[in-house]
Structure prediction request, 212 residues.
Amino acid sequence: MKYQCGIFDLDGVLVDTAKYHYLGWKKLADRLGFSFTEQQNEALKGISRMAALDLLLKMGDMNEKFSEEEKEELAAEKNQYYLDFVSQLKEEELLPGVTELFERMKQANIKIALGSASKNARLILERLHIKDYFDFIVDGTLVKKAKPDPEVFTLSADRLGIPYEKCVVFEDSAAGIQAAKTAGMTAVGIGTRKNLPMADYICSNVGEFTWQ
Ligand code: BG6
Ligand code: MG
Prediction:
């Protein structure tokens, strides 16, 4: 077996929360008076909350308009929209094949780690009752450098003592695929080749992935 560890992004890979991040940003854009499409949202996937806000404001031509303090308020506003959406989150919103893949990994003694930019990651894992599967959790409260910096993935590998080339990363964002490749890890893109051209493999969900 080539791989000793799977590192999973959360939003859009394990659970369908990427749509709630999008809807949260869209609600903020609507309030500020500009449009924001799902295609534009691709660039916001995977990056930190404040980096995403900066990009969003640029798209609305509003990046010069707000002070740092006001930006903190806008980010908190989006987070509240997001939390309102996920307060209804149900276990059924786990994406197809997740628990089956985790069970197979446990049996094969392959470590399971989380590599998420989200500060809400632990809350989501707890709500879905999948937190205990993880050997190590890296979330947005732990990393100093956000994706596409590889820190979010190398932290887990370092902590678990696994060489980077023996790690496979599951990601739905271009920034995350870039981070995995920069670390020298295998990158499985969850989505389409068009949106994730740098991925080593493409699956439409983690359930499609086989270790062979
Ligand atoms: C990533 C999402 O997982 O987390 C991004 O793909 C999000 O869309 C980022 O902006 C930060 O999340 P949070 O929950 O800390 O605002
Ligand atoms: Mg994601």
Summary: The chain has a mean pLDDT of 96. The two ends are 9 Å apart (CA to CA). Residues 171 and 190 are 6 Å apart (CA to CA). The chain has eight helices and six strands.
